[in-house]
């Protein structure tokens, strides 16, 4: 089967899984349904391909959606945000240390691979840094792919039960294709394209998401446009994102993944527990709602955690800002810390 046919089959399964997940009211169904379906098919060796090459074209839609949720009331909370950013440092430090111990002692990874597997940064960044330092890039990629999938899944399910995650299908929040006018579509498209290009030119992290979000926020705050992108486009973007996460397991042996997944579950649950404790402390100090504080600290993907914030009706700008800062911090300090501690890592 050629690549186009494999991609077509993968997308067809992802769309069907999204509708199935929605029908059973799974939290964040349009992303989680495709994610689980493609992960299972990938490990089973089915002839599917993930839409990874499509992802950069749909993430800006999510960014524009997030920007539409920004409002002027957020600026009064910037003082609390600063304290939350300071708290991000110990959250990352404690989580990374706990992850390193488990990967090193339980999975018996070599020190380099364990170090970059435990860093709560982006998959691609840790993969490249770890490979350059001499680590096993396949194990690093597997560790981060597993962490992201488990983090998104556990948070969506647990917090869905605790706080009520919207399925994204309520008619009250639904934006039809006819709701935006021609002028609105033009402005929304400009936000997506201009934001993405500008963010890449500035070498910003999560450029496909951050640039469109910022430009969209400016456009909505200025009153140039007052509607978000149509819901069907946002849902399709989520389907592509979920399928991309699940397809990261393509070519991996199910036995190897399952062997790595057991300690990864411990790492993920431990990180979530640490994060939740810090989030409760932040809530006590600042009054930031605990779900919002938690989503800002949880070590999932930037886009995935921001989507959870959308579903839980929390401040998307806060959550995405915290995760972009997380990635910047990890990229900035991971290599220097590793160089400093390389001879001491055991």
TrEMBL record:
TM region(s), chain numbering: 81-103, 148-165, 233-250, 262-288, 324-341
Alphabetically ordered keywords of this record: Membrane, Transmembrane, Transmembrane helix
Annotated GO biological process: regulation of gene expression
InterPro entries: AbrB_dup (IPR017516), AbrB_fam (IPR007820)
Keyword Iron-sulfur applies: no
Highest taxon of source: Bacteria
This protein's GO CC annotations: membrane
PANTHER family documented for this protein: REGULATOR ABRB-RELATED
Name under which the protein is recorded: Regulator of aidB expression
Organism listed in the record: Ketogulonicigenium robustum
Gene: abrB
